[in-house]
Fold this protein.
Amino acid sequence: MAKKQFKAESKRLLDLMIHSIYTHKEIFLRELISNSSDAIDKLYYRALMENNTGFSREDFTITIELNKENRTLKISDNGIGMTKDELEQNLGTIAKSGSLAFKKDNEPKDEIDIIGQFGVGFYSAFMVSEKVSVISKAFGETVAYCWESTGADGYSIAECEKESNGTDIILTIKQNTEEEHYDEFLEPYRIKELIKRYSDYIRYPIHMMMEKHRLKEGSENEYEDYMELETLNSMVPIWKKNKSELKEEDYHTFYKEKFHDFINPAKVIHTSVEGVSTYNALLFIPEKAPFNYYTKDYEKGLQLYSSGVLIMEKCADLLPDYFSFVRGLVDSQDLSLNISREMLQHDRQLKAIASRLEKKIKSELQAMMNTEREKYDAFFESFGLQLKYGLYEGFGANKDTLKDLVLFYSSSEKKMVTLSEYVSRCKTEQKYIYYACGDTIERIDKLPQIELLKDKGYEVLYLTADIDEFALQVLHDFDDKEFKSVSSGDLELEESKEEKEAAQKQTEENKDLLDFMKETLGDKVSEVRLSQRLKTHPVCLTSGGDLSLEMEKVINALPNEQKIKADRVLEINAKHPILEALKESFSVDKEKAKTYTELLYSQALLIEGFTLEDPVAFSNAICSLIV
Ligand code: ADP
Ligand code: MG
């Protein structure tokens, strides 16, 4: 019988399929099962339209048969079937229904990616088969036809025998090669696994004979093998069920199984939306960050289903980076099965879904914060850093989404608080939200700069993460109150006019000493000044410009060539006896005054958490004062 040639573009696609280097050849099964399910849908729908009561949903099945000896895998359905013309049209050409939408001038590399990620329907069978036979009888017809092809050399169609309507797809599985083990597609357990993975929620039962073990009747220790028809798919996805049908435990079990977590999620979000875009989503906020969460190995994304069929394992476009911890899935009937990653990125539906999900996640987190604060605190411990990175990223583009969700440690409450909680406790005159940076809460608590603020009853936020100060700088203000570091120049605490004048005068009186100290330290500091903000501590180091000392540390810890330096200001406590000692030595022993100055600067560095350039000189200087 004469072979017919595939249409040009089909031939090209077929070549790609056959020579695809893609590793996920297994998706052929998903494609064929989906086609069977579509064919049953069509018949069921037609029966409904024609008021044909001869059918009920229970009559429909998809059956898989494996034959290792013949190396065949057969997928049968009792759906609508295909006429001779349809076989020719649908399998001899790439169907219009959108299997393939790539442009002719695409680079070969992209083409492989398209196939790799999504498969292109029926043709994907050729990735694993040396021969594909399709035996089909259209509903209402008397004659069946067999379509057969071994690939690029074309196909043949001939009349054949088939009892009832529907389609059998018979794949003759390729021989193993060095790189590829096609044998796996003849193993019942492997097939079962693939069905579970990709086609679990197909609405019709997928049957296969499975070998089982059982105790021999009347025996206590003798077993026998027997065959049993098993339904491989669970058919109704949990996310399509009514919320009222489901218990919390159901969600938790599903989450742990599906996303391989040991502990229950902190929050379950189950939502279904109808309208411009229609979808079901089932999202989980884990309680603990996976071990690789803060590394580049972690891949964000939600599973994407099109009417119950998995089309993408991790769809990154559905989640913004700052919510990358969310696990879960989206199922939408608006998406087509054979959509490429590239097309997906520009998909309006998908964008609309992503934006609604983002709002939903935010409102659920907000609700958790308001009603289950302890839980929220634990969540924040795991993922707060990510939210703060989100604030910083894009120069604050997402601040409206995130500013209400971030927590910082409060000096007065001794726990994590929100920015609005801080503001609600502000003194009436208070212009700023004060913060201090350091490695740990304990260390910050001991910073000299903090003492006076705490004394005067100001609340201070303690920032311990590298990103914190950057995030606040991007945020700039909250409720019209600007952020201010306790280490910055002027804290603008309430001071009386007299206090201000006295301070001014004291500075003038000590001008020579301060100049001398600045000269001694050279360009290590930009200024040495008297300070009214210190209480019991002799000195502290603050930053003059916009770049804080803490930011300097963070930036310089990055693997950059260029190191930066913040403006350092050495502040001397104007009320501390150390000032008298400095004055004294300045007038009688300039060498000693130099040593004091250098020691005080070193101390200030240590308090701020810097390392000394020359620790030996430091300890020698101390020694010189002792002996
Ligand atoms: P798509 O499913 O996107 O249309 P496919 O390449 O998977 O593309 O299938 C091409 C066409 O072949 C289908 O649209 C359908 O008309 C027909 N077809 C494939 N498998 C079957 C089947 N089991 N029963 C009936 N028709 C089928
Ligand atoms: Mg298909």
Notes: The chain has four domains: 11-213, 243-377, 406-485, 497-626. The chain is about 35% helix and 20% strand. The CA atoms of residues 2 and 156 lie 7 Å apart. The first strand starts at residue 62 and ends at 67.
